[in-house]
C-alpha cells in the first residue's frame, strides 16, 4: 500500500515529507537547568529522528533574553548546530501580545505592530553581532490569526509592514498563522498566499492541539492553502480548560501526506526524545506557554 502511495505521489508531483524535518523549540527559563550534556543528547536525538532545521520560537520573551550571548540558550543552539541542525531563530516576543491586540483599533494595532517589529529588529542585530549564531532564517513570534486580521484593511497594513521588515533582514523571514473560523478558507488561503509571495515564509498551524475547530473544518482550511504556505503539525493536545493557564500533553502529530506543502512540527518539548525537557518543566511546576 505504501509503495502504491509513493507511486501516486510521484505521478502527482507531491511529497510525503518527514513530519519532523523541521521542528519548533519554544524556550522557557526553566530549561536553563538542563546540562550541556543533556542538550547535546537532545540535539543528537533530534537529528537522528530526521530533523534538518530547528525553528526557535523566540530569543527574547519580555525582559528575559535567556542569558544573552553567553547564556544557556545561546550555548545550546550552538550545540544544535554542531549536530547538523540548521537554525531559524526567533526574535522578540511581548508576553502581553494577545491581550494588546485584543484592545486596539486598526490604527492602534498598526502602531503597536510597528513598535514590536522595531524590538525584533534590534534583537536580530544583537543576535548577529553578539550571539554570533549561524542563522539561516528569522522567525517572528507574533502570530497571525483571522480574528484580529479579519478586516481587509488590517491585512493590507500588516502585509506592508511585514514586507518592509523582511527587507531589513539578512536572511529569510518566517511567520506563522492559525485559523479560528472567522475567514472563509478560500479568503484565508489567499491572504496567507499573498504574504508568502513577498519574501516571507508562512506557516499555518493545523489546530489539532487545541481542537477549537472540528477536524473536517480544519481539513477545509488546509486544502485551501496554496503550496507556498507550510503546515505546522501540532504534537500536543490541550488539557487545560478555557480561561485556565495553558497546559498540554504530548500527542502524535498528523502524519498524513502534506501534498505540496512544506511541513514542521510543534514542538520539541512534546516529542518522545524531548521528554527530558517536558519532565524538567513539570518537575519545576512551570506551565506551558500557549502558542496561540
Strands, helices and their partners?
Blueprint: H1 2-12, E1 22-25, H2 36-48, E2 53-56, E3 60-61, H3 72-82, E4 86-90, E5 92-93, H4 97-103, H5 106-131, E6 135-139, E7 144-145, H6 152-167, E8 173-178, H7 185-196, E9 200-205, H8 215-223, E10 230-234, E11 236-238, E12 248-250, E13 263-266, H9 275-283
Parallel strand pairs: 1-2, 2-4, 3-5, 4-6, 6-8, 7-8, 8-9, 9-10, 10-13
Antiparallel strand pairs: 11-12
**How would you state the average pLDDT, rounded?**
92
Major sheet summary line: 9 strands, parallel
> CATH topology, anyone?
TIM Barrel
Alpha-carbon Rg, integer: 19 Å
Number of helices: 9
According to CATH, the homologous superfamily is: Glycosidases
Tell me what the CATH architecture is.
Answer: Alpha-Beta Barrel
Helix content: 25-40%
The strand count comes to 13
Oligomer: single chain
Shape, principal axes of CA atoms? globular
Order of helical and strand elements: HEHEEHEEHHEEHEHEHEEEEH
Q: What class would the helix/strand composition place it in? A: alpha/beta
Question: Low-confidence parts, pLDDT < 50 over ≥5 residues?
Answer: 1-17
The number of domains: 1
Report the end-to-end length measured between terminal Cα atoms.
37 Å
Q: Using the coordinates above, name the CATH class.
A: Alpha Beta
Residues in β-strands, percent = 15-25%
Amino acid at each position: 500500500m505504501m509503495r502504491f502511495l509513493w507511486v501516486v505521489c510521484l505521478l502527482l508531483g507531491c511529497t510525503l515529507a518527514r513530519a519532523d524535518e523541521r521542528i519548533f523549540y519554544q524556550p522557557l527559563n526553566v530549561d536553563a537547568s538542563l546540562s550541556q550534556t543533556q542538550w547535546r543528547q537532545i540535539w543528537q536525538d533530534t537529528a537522528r529522528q530526521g530533523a534538518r532545521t530547528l525553528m526557535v520560537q523566540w530569543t527574547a520573551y519580555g525582559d528575559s533574553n535567556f542569558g544573552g550571548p553567553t547564556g544557556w540558550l545561546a550555548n545550546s543552539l550552538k550545540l544544535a548546530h554542531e549536530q547538523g541542525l540548521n537554525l531559524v531563530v526567533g526574535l522578540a516576543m511581548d508576553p502581553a501580545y494577545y491581550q494588546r491586540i485584543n484592545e486596539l483599533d486598526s490604527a492602534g494595532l498598526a502602531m503597536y505592530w510597528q513598535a514590536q517589529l522595531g524590538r525584533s529588529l534590534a534583537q536580530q542585530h544583537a543576535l548577529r553581532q553578539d550571539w554570533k549564531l549561524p542563522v539561516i532564517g528569522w522567525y517572528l513570534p507574533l502570530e497571525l490569526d483571522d480574528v484580529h486580521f479579519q478586516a481587509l484593511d488590517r491585512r493590507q497594513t500588516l502585509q506592508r509592514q511585514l514586507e518592509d521588515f523582511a527587507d531589513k533582514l539578512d536572511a529569510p523571514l518566517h511567520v506563522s498563522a492559525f485559523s479560528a473560523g472567522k475567514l472563509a478558507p478560500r479568503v484565508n488561503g489567499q491572504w496567507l498566499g499573498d504574504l508568502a509571495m513577498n519574501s516571507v515564509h508562512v506557516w499555518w498551524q493545523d489546530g489539532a492541539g487545541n481542537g477549537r475547530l472540528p477536524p473536517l473544518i480544519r481539513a477545509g482550511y488546509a486544502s485551501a492553502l496554496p503550496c507556498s504556505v507550510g503546515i505546522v503539525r501540532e504534537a500536543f493536545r490541550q488539557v487545560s480548560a478555557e480561561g485556565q493557564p495553558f497546559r498540554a500533553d504530548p500527542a502524535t502529530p498528523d502524519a498524513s501526506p502534506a501534498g505540496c506543502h512544506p511541513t514542521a512540527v510543534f514542538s520539541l518539548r512534546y516529542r518522545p526524545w524531548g521528554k527530558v525537557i517536558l519532565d524538567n518543566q513539570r518537575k519545576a511546576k512551570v506551565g506551558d506557554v500557549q502558542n496561540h
